[in-house]
């Protein structure tokens, strides 16, 4: 199971409602992902606020994984870098995409976890 802490708890709570939050620095306004205690632009220590992402982005890199990292992981799967319309990059899975390509618009979908949380994944628009 993926642990949460005081910095990531609001992000994980939003995934239970299938909402993708991005952290916004209270000092300089930078929007970043994943949530962290420190702003990657100005260095301000949090707490920082959150804004809801549109759920739209573009694939800027991907790889198709054919060798399972663990026995319970089904292969093949597509691991992708998705640049959200808001700017941050998510490392995520592409789902329902037969032939992945770069520069393709994608939209947010969700992969449920056993405890009610979910992981953001993306599919083609």
UniProtKB/TrEMBL annotation:
<dbReference type="Pfam" id="PF12172">
    <property type="entry name" value="zf-ChsH2"/>
</dbReference>
<dbReference type="InterPro" id="IPR012340">
    <property type="entry name" value="NA-bd_OB-fold"/>
</dbReference>
<dbReference type="Pfam" id="PF01796">
    <property type="entry name" value="OB_ChsH2_C"/>
</dbReference>
<dbReference type="InterPro" id="IPR052513">
    <property type="entry name" value="Thioester_dehydratase-like"/>
</dbReference>
<feature type="domain" description="ChsH2 rubredoxin-like zinc ribbon">
    <location>
        <begin position="12"/>
        <end position="43"/>
    </location>
</feature>
<feature type="domain" description="ChsH2 C-terminal OB-fold">
    <location>
        <begin position="51"/>
        <end position="110"/>
    </location>
</feature>
<dbReference type="InterPro" id="IPR022002">
    <property type="entry name" value="ChsH2_Znr"/>
</dbReference>
<protein>
    <submittedName>
        <fullName>Putative OB-fold protein</fullName>
    </submittedName>
</protein>
<dbReference type="InterPro" id="IPR002878">
    <property type="entry name" value="ChsH2_C"/>
</dbReference>
């Amino acid at each position: 199971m993926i642990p949460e802490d005081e910095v990531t708890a609001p992000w994980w709570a939003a995934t239970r409602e299938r909402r993708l939050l991005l952290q916004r620095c209270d000092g300089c306004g930078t929007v970043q992902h994943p949530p962290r205690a420190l702003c990657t632009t100005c260095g301000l220590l949090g707490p920082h606020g959150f804004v809801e992402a549109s759920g739209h982005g573009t694939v800027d890199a991907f790889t198709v994984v054919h060798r399972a990292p663990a026995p319970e992981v089904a292969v093949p799967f597509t691991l992708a870098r998705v640049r959200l319309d808001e700017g941050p990059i998510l490392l995520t899975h592409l789902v329902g995409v037969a032939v992945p390509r770069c520069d393709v618009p994608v939209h947010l979908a969700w992969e449920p976890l056993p405890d009610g949380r979910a992981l953001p994944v993306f599919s083609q628009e």
